[in-house]
Amino acid sequence: MSETKLIGNVSRRTILKGSAATTGAALIGGTFPMHFIKNAHAQTFRGDPGSAASVKLGFNVPQTGPYADEGADELRAYQLAVKHINGEGDGGMLNTMKPLELKGNGILGKKVEFVTGDTQTKSDAARASAKRMIEKDNVAMVTGGSSSGVAIAVQGLCQEMGVIFMAGLTHSNDTTGKDKKRYGFRHFFNAYMSGQAIAPVLLDEYGNERRAYHLTADYTWGWTQEESIKAATENIGWETVNTVRTPVGAGDFSQYITPVLNSGADVLILNHYGKDMVNSLTQAVQFGLRDKQVNGKNFEIVVPLYSRLMAQGAGEAAKGILGTTNWHWSLTDAGSQAFVKSFGQEYGFPPSQAAHTCYVQTLLYANACEMAGTFAPWEVIKQLEGFEFDGAGNGPTLYRAEDHQCFKDVLVVRGKENPQSNFDLLEVVKNVPRAQVEYPADMFGGELGPYQV
Amino acid sequence: MDAIFLQILNGLDKGGAYALIALGLTLVFGTLGVVNFAHGAIFMMGAFCAVTLEKLLTLSVKVKDESVTFFDAYKETPYLELWFGDTGTAIIDWSVPLSIILAIPVMLLIGIVMERFLIRHFYKRPHAEQILVTFGLAIVLQEVVKAAFGANPIPQGAPDIVSGSAAVGALFGLGEAVVYPWWRLIYLAFSLMTIGLVFSFLHFTTYGMVVRAGMADRETVELLGINIERRFTIVFGIAAVVAGLAGVMYTPVLPPDYHLGMDFLVLSFVVVVVGGMGSLPGAVAAGFLLGILQSFSSMTEVKDIFPGIDQIIIYLVAVVILLTRPRGLMGRRGVMES
Prior knowledge:
The complex is a heterodimer of chains A (453) and B (338). By secondary structure, chain A is of the alpha/beta class. Chain A has helices at 2-28, 68-85, 123-135, 148-161, 191-206, 220-235, 254-261, 274-286, 308-314, 334-347, 353-372, 377-384, 434-437; strands spanning 54-61, 111-118, 141-144, 164-167, 184-186, 211-217, 239-246, 267-271, 293-294, 297-298, 300-305, 322-325, 388-389, 397-399, 406-407, 410-415, 426-432. Chain A has 2 domains: 54-189 and 329-408, Response regulator (Rossmann fold), CATH 3.40.50; 192-325, Response regulator (Rossmann fold), CATH 3.40.50.2300. Chain B is built from 15 helices and 4 strands. Chain B is 69% helix and 4% strand. In chain B, strands 1-2 form a two-stranded antiparallel sheet. In chain B, strands 3-4 form a two-stranded antiparallel ribbon. Chain B has one domain (2-324). The relative contact order of chain B is 0.19. Chain B has helices spanning 2-32, 39-57, 79-84, 86-93, 95-117, 127-149, 168-171, 182-204, 206-216, 218-223, 228-250, 260-275, 280-297, 300-305, 309-324; strands at 60-64, 74-78, 165-166, 180-181.
């Protein structure tokens, strides 16, 4: 009886001590709830595969909603990347990327597995899905996206939870600018780079005496692109006649297009993406803008952010239209060729620029873990920061440490007038060298935040 | 002045589309008492009738592009062009107007099947259940279309001859810059014509008269020995055809994707509510009214004073109408009023 009582006393005291200790640890560690994790000690982290034979990655892409086709392509790329990292298939860019420590035996000897989530291109759905992957599936890294609004929302969550986020397609300056995060990395280019890349081509093709009218999608990406393109075109002497915000998903843009007719503008710049871009471009062409002569010049339309899927949606209207893109399947460098070959043979058609950036991001993360010798995110982050590599499709590339933005060559493209095949929709007008699109790291403000959260 | 004229045209054009969808919605509500949330999906199915016909007409011989090595890329030449030369090209060019011939029977059939096999069972159930089942149906239909055609919009061209713009400014003594796409003018004419046809059908045919009598007093009409239920089924079919044709004709304006119906559904419900549930002239008037209001509220001059007004104007009008006149502009006394 006394023995039982003693045991009871001891265990109660132990419990009290233990909980005081864990509460203290939780207070020191901020919001990180360490006492919920098995084998908790100071160096534990979310997504740690521990002694398991495999490590899980979370692919969070739009599987429903307007970007579902792009999301499907991103998912194909991720699956291909996993195959290559695990040593299956022909290896793709594992054969071309340098430096690379991946050996085709998974990451740090652990086989890569993945879970997928549906962002629905909605910030709340994307966050819920990422949270589920992190908490329930114990993923070591989250990646994906087809919208800057979503990417910024998920990136914020990943920072709070201490899991690395390798952004997919997101083009807003804010992603690695005012909303940059220590745990967020972007390989894709941004609106500022689009402006710097396309401005000289616009000057060559359309001259320096132009009056531009902007229609802009009313959210983070649209705003930053308008700002960047406006600045870049005014730099080459263009005047900005008007900038008009349009609701996302407006469908019929006629009430925004007709004012352009009388505005005295001779260039229409569409800061729209996806379905909005397909609709506004189709309708602008119907309103005869491209057949118009204003100020003695041919009226022109520019779509600063272009993709093959969008050119396909706009059909005839996209022909001859200038824009920029992160990457295109027709590039002939070794990295691009290796990727297009693997992807083409696996799926029977070429990868989109979204697929390319997602594939490269996965390899970069895997390689950084291999270099760090651990999955501990703060160590992996240090490997990615300032990492320089080549052979991934855009020439020598730098993951800048100060803002986690990749710097690489950018493509200026044009909707092809006479396509040779069903996939031959864009032609590369200029491969703009990295030096032309670089900018100071503090230009867009923001704070990365701590390594350990 | 030029800007105002163009915004009126925009408003009429938008209003035409709203009115056509709302007309079918309110017709179904007035006759069958059903709140049909699948009506937007019917509009979308109409648009995909045009896509289907275009795909059929452009079935092609595929010649592999040998310069592409890692996957199969093809240069496609439609059979019609190979077999009939310029005539074939012309047929493909006219695929959207030709789709009307396909869409009428197909949409009538879809409407009747929908009514007979699903919606009929919900006549006596509360509106909330009708909304749930029709909304569910809409989701099923759009997922079927997505599985078949993908999520990306599919461009549909208007025939070449009407793909440019008409110099309407010159006609009205306005500036030369005042132009308007031919196809949108055709769409406006088409919506006015369709609205006229539906009204004539209901007012000048015996069949229509019986339907209107059934709307007013179903019981008495049934006591006279008329099978009003069958007539209402046909009315449901007609509502589907009207929405379907609106969808077909809208494809050159808005490259259709599977979500097209949902984009229009909420708007057209607002139109019906503003016009008055069950009121046909109300739906038409409200359609045009809201279209024009939406266009004017997007003008920079207006947005400078009320930023963002273009995004909320329609709902603002709906709120004001519901607060001051719950039965809508032309709704019957007592409908939606306590």
